[in-house]
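Hi all, a correction to my earlier message: I attached the wrong file for Mage-g2. Here's the right sequence:
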Amino acid sequence: MLQKTRSRSHPDAQLWSGSDCCPGVSGEIPRETGHPDASQDTPGVPRTSFRQAQATSATELQAEKHLELKVAELVQFLLIKDQRKIPIKRSGILKHVVRDCKDVFPDLLKLAAERLRYVFGYKLVELEPKSNAYILINALEPMEEDCELRGYQGTPTTGLLMIILGLIFMNGHSIPENDVWDFLRRLGVYPTKKHSVFGDPKKLITEDFVRQRYLESRRIPHTDPVDCELQWGPRANLETSKMKVLKFVAKIHNQEPTDWPTQYCEALADEQLRVRPEPSSPAPTP
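and the right structure:
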Protein backbone atom coordinates (compact mmCIF):
# COMPACT_ATOMS: atom_id res chain seq x y z
CA MET A 1 0.00 0.00 0.00
CA LEU A 2 1.36 3.36 -0.95
CA GLN A 3 1.91 5.93 1.73
CA LYS A 4 -0.72 8.61 2.14
CA THR A 5 0.20 12.17 1.41
CA ARG A 6 1.65 13.95 4.38
CA SER A 7 -1.01 16.63 4.29
CA ARG A 8 -3.79 14.07 4.85
CA SER A 9 -6.21 16.62 3.43
CA HIS A 10 -8.11 14.17 1.27
CA PRO A 11 -8.79 10.48 1.76
CA ASP A 12 -7.81 9.75 -1.82
CA ALA A 13 -4.70 11.92 -1.94
CA GLN A 14 -2.57 9.08 -3.22
CA LEU A 15 -2.54 8.43 -6.95
CA TRP A 16 -4.19 5.04 -6.83
CA SER A 17 -5.18 2.92 -3.88
CA GLY A 18 -6.03 -0.74 -3.74
CA SER A 19 -7.50 -1.72 -7.10
CA ASP A 20 -8.02 1.86 -8.23
CA CYS A 21 -5.23 1.45 -10.77
CA CYS A 22 -8.05 1.20 -13.29
CA PRO A 23 -10.78 3.85 -13.42
CA GLY A 24 -14.08 2.36 -12.42
CA VAL A 25 -12.62 -0.38 -10.22
CA SER A 26 -13.20 0.52 -6.59
CA GLY A 27 -10.49 0.28 -3.95
CA GLU A 28 -10.32 -1.60 -0.72
CA ILE A 29 -13.36 -1.68 1.52
CA PRO A 30 -12.67 0.48 4.58
CA ARG A 31 -12.49 -1.25 7.90
CA GLU A 32 -15.02 -0.58 10.59
CA THR A 33 -13.89 2.09 13.02
CA GLY A 34 -15.33 3.58 16.15
CA HIS A 35 -15.84 0.31 18.05
CA PRO A 36 -13.09 -1.77 19.61
CA ASP A 37 -14.64 -5.02 18.41
CA ALA A 38 -16.67 -4.78 15.23
CA SER A 39 -17.55 -8.46 15.53
CA GLN A 40 -19.69 -7.87 18.62
CA ASP A 41 -23.45 -7.69 18.23
CA THR A 42 -24.96 -4.30 17.60
CA PRO A 43 -28.09 -3.58 19.66
CA GLY A 44 -31.18 -4.09 17.52
CA VAL A 45 -29.27 -5.81 14.70
CA PRO A 46 -29.53 -9.61 14.50
CA ARG A 47 -26.25 -11.52 14.51
CA THR A 48 -27.23 -13.24 11.24
CA SER A 49 -27.66 -9.86 9.49
CA PHE A 50 -24.18 -8.79 10.56
CA ARG A 51 -22.68 -12.02 9.32
CA GLN A 52 -24.52 -11.69 6.02
CA ALA A 53 -23.14 -8.18 5.61
CA GLN A 54 -19.61 -9.45 6.30
CA ALA A 55 -20.03 -12.25 3.75
CA THR A 56 -21.34 -9.79 1.15
CA SER A 57 -18.37 -7.45 1.71
CA ALA A 58 -15.89 -10.30 1.39
CA THR A 59 -17.56 -11.49 -1.83
CA GLU A 60 -17.50 -8.00 -3.34
CA LEU A 61 -13.82 -7.52 -2.45
CA GLN A 62 -12.94 -10.88 -3.98
CA ALA A 63 -14.84 -9.95 -7.16
CA GLU A 64 -12.99 -6.62 -7.41
CA LYS A 65 -9.60 -8.27 -7.03
CA HIS A 66 -10.55 -10.88 -9.63
CA LEU A 67 -11.60 -8.12 -12.06
CA GLU A 68 -8.31 -6.27 -11.50
CA LEU A 69 -6.31 -9.41 -12.26
CA LYS A 70 -8.35 -10.01 -15.40
CA VAL A 71 -7.74 -6.45 -16.62
CA ALA A 72 -3.97 -6.85 -16.11
CA GLU A 73 -4.08 -10.22 -17.90
CA LEU A 74 -6.02 -8.76 -20.83
CA VAL A 75 -3.60 -5.82 -21.19
CA GLN A 76 -0.62 -8.17 -21.33
CA PHE A 77 -2.42 -10.42 -23.83
CA LEU A 78 -3.18 -7.47 -26.14
CA LEU A 79 0.39 -6.12 -25.93
CA ILE A 80 1.90 -9.50 -26.76
CA LYS A 81 -0.52 -10.20 -29.62
CA ASP A 82 0.07 -6.74 -31.07
CA GLN A 83 3.75 -7.52 -31.62
CA ARG A 84 2.72 -9.67 -34.58
CA LYS A 85 0.65 -6.79 -36.02
CA ILE A 86 -2.21 -9.19 -36.72
CA PRO A 87 -5.77 -8.21 -35.71
CA ILE A 88 -6.69 -9.62 -32.31
CA LYS A 89 -9.93 -11.56 -32.51
CA ARG A 90 -12.62 -11.30 -29.88
CA SER A 91 -12.91 -15.08 -29.84
CA GLY A 92 -9.23 -15.35 -28.90
CA ILE A 93 -9.68 -12.89 -26.03
CA LEU A 94 -12.69 -14.82 -24.74
CA LYS A 95 -10.88 -18.15 -25.00
CA HIS A 96 -7.49 -17.25 -23.56
CA VAL A 97 -8.27 -14.42 -21.11
CA VAL A 98 -11.94 -13.93 -20.29
CA ARG A 99 -12.91 -17.61 -20.16
CA ASP A 100 -15.63 -17.88 -17.47
CA CYS A 101 -16.08 -14.11 -17.12
CA LYS A 102 -17.95 -13.46 -20.38
CA ASP A 103 -20.67 -11.50 -18.61
CA VAL A 104 -18.15 -8.74 -17.69
CA PHE A 105 -16.33 -8.71 -21.05
CA PRO A 106 -17.50 -5.15 -21.97
CA ASP A 107 -16.20 -3.83 -18.63
CA LEU A 108 -12.91 -5.69 -19.03
CA LEU A 109 -12.41 -4.31 -22.52
CA LYS A 110 -13.19 -0.75 -21.43
CA LEU A 111 -10.84 -0.84 -18.44
CA ALA A 112 -8.08 -2.46 -20.49
CA ALA A 113 -8.47 0.21 -23.18
CA GLU A 114 -8.14 2.98 -20.58
CA ARG A 115 -5.01 1.43 -19.12
CA LEU A 116 -3.47 0.97 -22.58
CA ARG A 117 -4.14 4.63 -23.39
CA TYR A 118 -2.87 6.26 -20.24
CA VAL A 119 -0.04 3.91 -19.29
CA PHE A 120 1.31 2.61 -22.58
CA GLY A 121 0.24 5.28 -25.09
CA TYR A 122 -1.81 2.91 -27.25
CA LYS A 123 -5.38 3.20 -28.44
CA LEU A 124 -7.47 0.03 -28.70
CA VAL A 125 -9.73 0.21 -31.76
CA GLU A 126 -12.03 -2.20 -33.54
CA LEU A 127 -10.66 -2.87 -37.01
CA GLU A 128 -14.06 -2.50 -38.69
CA PRO A 129 -17.55 -2.04 -37.23
CA LYS A 130 -18.89 -5.33 -35.88
CA SER A 131 -15.74 -7.15 -37.05
CA ASN A 132 -14.96 -8.37 -33.52
CA ALA A 133 -11.27 -7.82 -34.31
CA TYR A 134 -9.06 -5.26 -32.58
CA ILE A 135 -5.70 -3.58 -33.13
CA LEU A 136 -3.50 -1.25 -31.10
CA ILE A 137 -2.43 2.04 -32.65
CA ASN A 138 -0.18 4.79 -31.34
CA ALA A 139 -2.16 7.70 -29.96
CA LEU A 140 -1.85 10.37 -32.67
CA GLU A 141 -2.72 13.21 -30.33
CA PRO A 142 -0.88 12.77 -27.03
CA MET A 143 -2.28 14.50 -24.00
CA GLU A 144 -1.10 18.03 -23.34
CA GLU A 145 0.84 16.74 -20.36
CA ASP A 146 2.63 14.24 -22.61
CA CYS A 147 3.70 16.91 -25.08
CA GLU A 148 5.39 18.87 -22.31
CA LEU A 149 7.86 16.05 -21.80
CA ARG A 150 9.85 16.76 -24.93
CA GLY A 151 12.37 14.03 -24.35
CA TYR A 152 9.63 11.39 -24.60
CA GLN A 153 7.12 12.99 -26.95
CA GLY A 154 5.17 10.35 -28.83
CA THR A 155 6.61 7.34 -26.97
CA PRO A 156 4.86 4.99 -24.53
CA THR A 157 7.37 5.75 -21.79
CA THR A 158 5.69 9.14 -21.34
CA GLY A 159 2.71 7.53 -19.62
CA LEU A 160 4.97 5.58 -17.29
CA LEU A 161 6.96 8.68 -16.38
CA MET A 162 3.78 10.69 -15.74
CA ILE A 163 2.50 7.95 -13.44
CA ILE A 164 5.72 8.02 -11.41
CA LEU A 165 5.69 11.82 -11.22
CA GLY A 166 2.09 11.61 -10.06
CA LEU A 167 2.94 9.04 -7.39
CA ILE A 168 5.71 11.31 -6.11
CA PHE A 169 3.59 14.48 -6.05
CA MET A 170 0.52 12.87 -4.48
CA ASN A 171 2.61 11.18 -1.77
CA GLY A 172 4.37 14.28 -0.48
CA HIS A 173 7.12 14.93 -3.09
CA SER A 174 9.02 11.68 -2.48
CA ILE A 175 8.22 8.00 -2.46
CA PRO A 176 10.23 4.86 -1.67
CA GLU A 177 11.23 2.97 -4.80
CA ASN A 178 9.77 -0.24 -3.36
CA ASP A 179 6.35 1.45 -3.13
CA VAL A 180 6.61 2.45 -6.79
CA TRP A 181 7.24 -1.17 -7.77
CA ASP A 182 4.40 -2.37 -5.55
CA PHE A 183 2.11 -0.14 -7.58
CA LEU A 184 3.60 -0.90 -11.01
CA ARG A 185 3.20 -4.64 -10.44
CA ARG A 186 -0.54 -4.04 -10.57
CA LEU A 187 -0.02 -2.73 -14.09
CA GLY A 188 1.99 -5.77 -15.11
CA VAL A 189 5.34 -3.96 -14.89
CA TYR A 190 7.98 -5.81 -12.85
CA PRO A 191 11.54 -4.76 -11.94
CA THR A 192 12.99 -8.18 -12.78
CA LYS A 193 11.09 -8.97 -16.00
CA LYS A 194 11.57 -7.59 -19.49
CA HIS A 195 8.49 -5.73 -20.65
CA SER A 196 7.11 -5.83 -24.18
CA VAL A 197 6.78 -2.02 -24.27
CA PHE A 198 9.29 -0.65 -21.76
CA GLY A 199 12.07 -3.16 -22.22
CA ASP A 200 14.00 -3.23 -18.93
CA PRO A 201 11.72 -1.23 -16.58
CA LYS A 202 14.26 -1.21 -13.74
CA LYS A 203 16.93 0.33 -15.96
CA LEU A 204 14.46 2.76 -17.54
CA ILE A 205 13.28 4.16 -14.20
CA THR A 206 16.34 4.01 -11.98
CA GLU A 207 18.99 4.74 -14.61
CA ASP A 208 17.58 6.37 -17.76
CA PHE A 209 15.04 8.68 -16.11
CA VAL A 210 17.58 9.55 -13.41
CA ARG A 211 20.41 10.16 -15.87
CA GLN A 212 18.17 12.39 -17.97
CA ARG A 213 17.23 14.28 -14.77
CA TYR A 214 13.51 13.55 -14.84
CA LEU A 215 13.92 11.79 -11.50
CA GLU A 216 16.31 11.92 -8.58
CA SER A 217 17.13 8.84 -6.55
CA ARG A 218 18.41 9.07 -2.99
CA ARG A 219 19.27 6.25 -0.63
CA ILE A 220 17.05 5.98 2.44
CA PRO A 221 19.34 5.62 5.49
CA HIS A 222 19.06 2.65 7.82
CA THR A 223 17.08 0.43 5.44
CA ASP A 224 17.82 -3.26 5.10
CA PRO A 225 17.63 -4.30 2.34
CA VAL A 226 18.72 -0.98 0.89
CA ASP A 227 15.88 1.15 -0.46
CA CYS A 228 15.93 4.47 -2.29
CA GLU A 229 13.37 7.22 -2.58
CA LEU A 230 12.42 8.93 -5.83
CA GLN A 231 11.80 12.64 -6.26
CA TRP A 232 11.17 14.97 -9.18
CA GLY A 233 14.33 15.92 -11.04
CA PRO A 234 15.07 19.40 -12.40
CA ARG A 235 14.15 18.42 -15.96
CA ALA A 236 10.66 17.35 -14.84
CA ASN A 237 10.17 20.75 -13.20
CA LEU A 238 11.19 22.45 -16.43
CA GLU A 239 9.19 20.35 -18.87
CA THR A 240 6.00 19.82 -16.91
CA SER A 241 4.33 21.23 -13.80
CA LYS A 242 2.48 20.14 -10.69
CA MET A 243 -0.80 21.29 -12.23
CA LYS A 244 -0.27 19.24 -15.41
CA VAL A 245 0.58 16.16 -13.37
CA LEU A 246 -2.43 16.72 -11.11
CA LYS A 247 -4.67 17.00 -14.18
CA PHE A 248 -3.21 13.73 -15.43
CA VAL A 249 -4.05 12.06 -12.10
CA ALA A 250 -7.56 13.55 -12.14
CA LYS A 251 -8.14 12.33 -15.69
CA ILE A 252 -7.17 8.81 -14.65
CA HIS A 253 -9.72 9.00 -11.82
CA ASN A 254 -12.39 10.71 -13.96
CA GLN A 255 -12.39 13.49 -11.39
CA GLU A 256 -11.42 17.14 -11.17
CA PRO A 257 -8.09 18.47 -9.84
CA THR A 258 -10.01 20.36 -7.15
CA ASP A 259 -11.01 17.01 -5.61
CA TRP A 260 -7.52 17.05 -4.01
CA PRO A 261 -7.63 20.47 -2.26
CA THR A 262 -4.12 20.49 -0.80
CA GLN A 263 -2.44 19.34 -3.99
CA TYR A 264 -4.57 21.72 -6.06
CA CYS A 265 -3.64 24.74 -3.93
CA GLU A 266 0.03 23.82 -4.16
CA ALA A 267 -0.20 23.35 -7.92
CA LEU A 268 -2.04 26.66 -8.29
CA ALA A 269 0.64 28.47 -6.32
CA ASP A 270 3.28 26.83 -8.51
CA GLU A 271 1.47 28.07 -11.63
CA GLN A 272 1.42 31.61 -10.27
CA LEU A 273 5.14 31.47 -9.59
CA ARG A 274 5.78 30.28 -13.14
CA VAL A 275 3.93 33.20 -14.73
CA ARG A 276 5.34 35.83 -12.37
CA PRO A 277 7.93 37.93 -14.24
CA GLU A 278 11.45 37.75 -12.93
CA PRO A 279 12.72 40.94 -11.30
CA SER A 280 14.65 43.05 -13.74
CA SER A 281 18.36 43.51 -13.21
CA PRO A 282 19.38 46.85 -11.74
CA ALA A 283 20.56 49.37 -14.29
CA PRO A 284 24.32 49.83 -14.30
CA THR A 285 25.49 52.95 -12.52
CA PRO A 286 27.10 55.56 -14.82
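Sorry for the mix-up. The first helix runs from residue 47 to 82.
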